[in-house]
Every structure is written in structure tokens, then in C-alpha cells.
Write a structure and sequence with these properties.
With 345 residues, the protein is an alpha/beta fold. It folds into 2 domains: 7-112 and 304-326, ornithine cyclodeaminase, domain 1 (2-Layer Sandwich); 120-299, Rossmann fold (3-Layer(aba) Sandwich). The protein is built from 11 helices and 17 strands. It has helices at residues 11-17, 20-35, 109-127, 142-154, 167-180, 191-195, 238-243, 251-257, 261-265, 278-282, 304-321; strands spanning 7-9, 39-40, 45-49, 54-63, 69-76, 88-95, 102-107, 134-138, 159-163, 184-187, 200-203, 208-212, 222-225, 234-236, 245-248, 274-277, 296-299. The strands form 3 sheets. An 8-stranded parallel sheet has the order 10-9-8-11-13-17-15-16.
């Protein structure tokens, strides 16, 4: 029997071999497998650490047809930014489903940022208007960066309006995105100003109170609600969720911790008000956008199959490079510039 080793990949290596376009394709493929019933993905397991104002999550998944199954161990600690640490950090274990052998242990912090953005890109591809030109980004953290880059991959955007409650962080975001995107980036003084002309809106904040009102939206807008990832979080006025064509990544996760979680608990929303999950949209079991006037909403909580898809992609690419320096323990999961993966307004 051939001797087998476990590949150990740090974030620097992953950044060098993972690109956003391929990531969007991989995540779209994962959603397609989900829509065909070819995935296993138990709900996230939470360890709620109120004493430390954070939590840990265990996320296992398997996709038929891929060579590996994964487990991600990820934390969310909103106060980390004050300590010079990322809000979200993660480790992913990729195992051979036929033997259980650990094929790879990799940094998951960057993977989490990219796979979340990739899901937003897939949703915009199917749910946003094809002629969308203007986007609005609420929040100026790490996820605000990657979400915009993902939108740029799937839409022909021209202009982006950005709002962040921290003026200094907002200025830094605008400066950064002007350098790495091809878009006109404009800071907004208020959230209303930011979203009023938008064809696509992305919310990337940890807010526990609605930030965007229905009256501010123009017909035909698509919204990627990214920030709500825990019970009680909410970025949109409940009227928006009630009116929109709502597509979730997972009903179970969204009902517990997504944008729909608060309206559901308040009795404003029912399960029958949720139109589809993203797997049904990608496999065309249900239609995405059907006209230019409807408001569409993607409620993203982050699925373990997204991690599986990218972990397989990364592992396959890393093997082709055959560099011995990759065979070393993860140096640090903290190489991302400190900031919020979910964003911070």
C-alpha cells in the first residue's frame, strides 16, 4: 500500500492558488448537487460562549461526486477587532470518504470569506436583473470587499455606493476598492442614500435591528442578506422580507439564524412565504427572477457544502503544484488583515 501523507496548507498558500471565479463555479456546482439531493449536511452545531461574547460552530458536509468530505471548526467573536484579530477564524479538515483518512488540514479563514462571497455571486447571477448597473454595499469589513468582487464577476456593474458607520473604515474601504475593482465607488452619508438607486444591495453587518426600510427600495432590486448568521440578527425591515421573493441557502439554518429568523419568530413570516432554496433555483426546479419589477432576496447563512467544494478545489490544485513547503503545519489562521468577515458598520 502506498504511503499516504496529510497535506497541511496555510492561508498564504491558499491565497496563491484560489481565485474567485473558480470559487463561484465550485459553489454553484455545490448548490446544484444540493438541489439534486446529492449532499449530506447536518445543521451547524453551536457552542454559545456568552461569557466571551462569541461562539464556535462545527460544520460537516459531504458531496457525492467529490473526492473529499469536510469538517470546519469556525468561531465568531465580534469583539476580536479590538484585539487585532479577525472576527471569524476557521480550520478545515478534508478527509477521504472511502477510508476516512485525513487528506488535508487547511486554514479556513480565507476560505470562509471567499465561499460566502461566492454564494452571493451565484445568487446574484440567478436573481438579480441582467441589466443591473448599480450596487449598494452596507458595511465596510472583509466580507464587503469580497461580496463586491464576486458581484463584479457575474454582473456588468458600473457604480457602487457604500455606507459604513465608521467614517475612517469607510474611507479605507473606498480607497481599497478603487484600486482592486473596475467600478466607480462612491461613499454615502446615510443608508437611505446608499440604497435608493441600487439594482443590487448587499448587507454585511452584525446588526440586530433593521437597517433598511422597504420605502427606500426601487422596484426590481435584488438583495443579498449576508450579515445575519445568528439568532436575533436582522438587517432588513420585516416588510421587505414579507414582500420579496425569498430564496434561502438552507431553510433550517435560515429559520434559526438567517435574515428570516426574526420575522418568523414574530409571526410576520411563515415557511410558506419562503419561495425556494438556492439549490432549487440553480437546478431550475423553481424559477429565479421572472420579471424586472419583483424584489428578490437571498438569505445567506453559509453552508458546509460550500466549504467542501472549495476545500476539494484547493486540495486538487495544491497537489498539482507538488511543492514540499506545503507539507508543513498551518503557520497561522490569522493572516487576513484584521476586520470583520461579516462586515462592520
Amino acid at each position: 500500500m502506498k504511503k499516504q501523507g496529510t497535506l497541511l496548507l496555510d492561508q498564504k498558500t491558499i491565497r496563491n492558488i484560489l481565485d474567485l471565479k473558480a470559487s463561484i463555479q465550485a459553489v454553484e456546482n455545490a448548490f446544484r448537487f444540493m438541489g439534486k439531493g446529492k449532499t449530506q449536511m447536518p445543521s451547524k452545531i453551536y457552542l454559545q460562549l456568552d461569557k466571551f461574547q462569541g461562539d464556535f460552530r462545527a460544520m460537516p458536509a459531504f458531496i457525492e461526486g467529490l473526492s473529499g468530505t469536510t469538517l470546519k471548526w469556525v468561531n465568531v467573536h465580534p469583539g476580536n477587532q479590538r484585539k487585532g484579530l479577525p472576527t471569524v477564524m476557521a480550520i478545515i479538515i478534508l478527509s477521504d470518504p472511502s477510508t476516512g483518512y485525513p487528506l488535508c488540514i487547511m486554514d479556513g479563514t480565507y476560505v470562509t470569506a471567499v465561499r460566502t462571497a461566492a454564494a452571493g455571486g451565484v445568487a446574484a447571477k440567478y436573481l438579480a436583473r441582467k441589466d443591473a448597473k448599480q450596487a449598494a454595499i452596507i458595511g465596510t469589513g472583509v466580507q464587503a470587499k469580497y461580496q463586491l468582487l464576486a458581484l463584479q464577476e457575474v454582473l456588468q456593474l458600473k457604480q457602487v455606493s457604500v455606507f459604513g458607520i465608521n467614517a475612517q473604515a469607510g474611507q479605507a474601504y473606498v480607497k481599497m476598492m478603487k484600486k482592486i475593482s473596475r467600478l466607480k465607488i462612491l461613499p454615502a452619508k446615510t443608508i437611505r442614500e446608499c440604497v435608493r438607486n441600487a439594482d443590487v444591495i448587499v448587507t454585511t453587518t452584525p446588526s440586530k435591528k433593521p437597517l433598511i426600510k422597504q420605502a427606500w427600495l426601487k422596484p426590481g432590486v435584488h438583495i443579498n442578506a449576508i450579515g445575519a448568521d445568528a439568532k436575533g440578527k436582522q438587517e432588513l425591515e420585516a416588510k421587505i422580507v414579507k414582500q420579496a421573493k425569498v430564496v434561502v441557502d438552507s431553510w433550517e439554518q435560515a429559520a434559526h439564524s438567517g435574515e428570516i429568523n426574526v420575522p418568523l419568530r414574530q409571526g410576520i413570516l411563515k415557511r410558506s412565504d419562503v419561495f425556494a432554496d438556492i439549490g432549487q433555483i440553480v437546478t431550475k426546479k423553481k424559477a429565479g427572477r421572472t420579471n424586472t419589477q419583483e424584489i428578490t432576496l437571498f438569505d445567506s447563512t453559509g453552508l458546509a457544502i460550500q466549504d467542501t467544494a472549495l476545500a476539494n478545489l484547493i486540495y486538487t490544485k495544491a497537489l498539482t503544484l507538488k511543492k514540499k513547503q506545503y507539507m508543513q503545519f498551518i503557520s497561522s489562521p490569522l493572516q487576513e488583515t484584521p476586520g470583520l468577515v461579516r462586515g462592520d458598520i
